[in-house]
Amino acid sequence: MRVLLLGFGKIAYMPYMNLYLDALRDKENVTIELIYWDRDGKPDAEVPGQISKAYKFVAHLEEQLPFQKKLKFFARYRAFALKVLKKNRYDRIIVLHTTPGLTLLDYLHWHYKGRYVLDFRDVSYEYIPVYRKLVAGLSRDAAFTLVSSNAFRKFLPSQGRVYTVHNYLEDSLNHTGLRSKTPRERDLIRVSFWGLVRQLDVNKAVINALGNDSRFELHYYGRMQQDGRDMEAYARNQGYRNVFFHGAYMPEDRYEFAAETDLIHNVYNLAYTMKNAMGNKYYDGIIFEIPQICTEGSHMGDVITEKQLGISVDLGDARLADRLWNYYQGLDWHAFQENCRIARENVLSEQAETKGRLLKFFD
Predict the structure, then answer these.
(1) What predicted TM-score, i.e. pTM, was given to this entire model?
(2) Which of 325, 306, 17 has its CA nearest to residue 8?
(3) Is it the case that residue 71 has pLDDT exceeding 70?
(4) Predicted confidence band of residue 13 (pLDDT cuts 50, 70, 90)
(5) Whether residue 95 is found in the same domain as residue 135
(6) Are residues 205 and 330 located together in one domain of the fold?
(7) What is the DSSP string of 54-100?
């Protein structure tokens, strides 16, 4: 069997493809190939050893560009991917995001209907009615669709062939309870963000709330494009000496800075693209046992509040720093760790069911 992973980003930013590599690990006579996109020319993670051939599309793309200006890059990606698809015959395709699937919607419909899985990883342009309709068509043609957030189900035409996939790295489970192994009592609370550093408006509010407050340090780890650069300049110009930017990291680097983190900054705005998401840091929180800060009114905020895994905040709250301080100091750590354990077990149970579906798909 020949399988193609149809990616739309750098290898380091597609850790979710490990779900499929793990599902195929013990399959005999399977060849796995990958299409991925180098968007910034900076160092990337190595191609996983299971992948026999990787096709790298190279084009610099700033994430903050308006959708219309991205279209020419999507067209170039389509041409690149079509060349690979026409040259090779694949038995199965894993579409690792809705956007690459839509660039090849017609080709997948005519040549791979029922033979690909759609991985609905993020909401992007579903607020555009035509785009949302095309995503529905992409899902209908798939063997089934995996959603990384149950809130994404409302964008899809059929609940019957939609399953939940949880966005964590398997290796993270080897570091379960990482933060619980060192003392929790802190005179200075370390708040850490990791991922693509963006959303200037949100982070200005967080930086202003915690900047030069002697009770906190605020750390940002991750790739920085224009938003991140503006954010760093803002913190510097404001004279905030307790706000730090560390730049890009590899997935395994998380273990080092997570071990020193007291609260995970998992706050995003309530824009259409983020309100419904379940981010990677949610899983890092329940695996490493670190409470997290989320946005009131977001899907993640609702989940962590219900499961008592963190605190949901309003960025307009003038007493935000006090709320975070009081929350942290008042935590019952035994109860918190038990909540993390229960959340992990639920995630692993659902993930096992999803992996079973995948194994049948690859038969």
Answers:
(1) 0.80
(2) 17
(3) yes
(4) confident
(5) yes
(6) yes
(7) EEEEE----TTS-HHHHHHHHHHHHHHHHHHHHHS--SEEEE-SHHH
